Amino acid sequence: FRRQEQKLDTCVRCVEGKLDKHFVIAFGNQTYLALPKSKPLVRNHCLIVPLNHVSSCAQMDEDVLDEIK
User: Fold this and answer.
1) DSSP letters of the chain?
2) What confidence score (pLDDT) does residue 5 get?
3) Residue 23 sits in which domain range?
4) What CA–CA distance (Å, rounded) separates 20 from 22?
5) If we measure between CA atoms, which residue out of 3, 17, 2, 4 comes closest to residue 55?
6) Do 54 and 63 touch, CB atoms closer than 8 A?
7) Alpha-carbon distance 28 to 67, whole Å?
8) What's the predicted TM-score (pTM) here?
9) What is the mean pLDDT of the chain?
């Protein structure tokens, strides 16, 4: 449990963690839209990130996936 807690505390994408909020463009109900912290993969590259920490897309609730669509 402690190891997972440490990972959450240092997560650079978690809103409660180390997220650099100046990269955030907009907040939705379940997700937020942000610019990448490092060099973008392609022009206009953005990130859609769930507000609640998940390890994979398989852990996302249906409402989170719907908002991403």
Assistant:
1) -HHHHHHHHH-SS-TTTT--GGGEEEE-SSEEEE--SS--SSTT--EEEESS--SSGGGS-HHHHHHH-
2) 67
3) 2-68
4) 6
5) 4
6) no
7) 8
8) 0.79
9) 87
CA distance 1 to 19: 22
Instruction: Report yes or no: 17 and 11 within 8 Å, Cβ to Cβ.
Output: yes
Q: How many domains does the chain have?
A: 1
C-alpha–C-alpha distance, residues 9 and 65, integer Å: 24
pLDDT digits (tens, 9 = 90+) for 16-43: 777 888 999 999 999 999 999 888 889 9
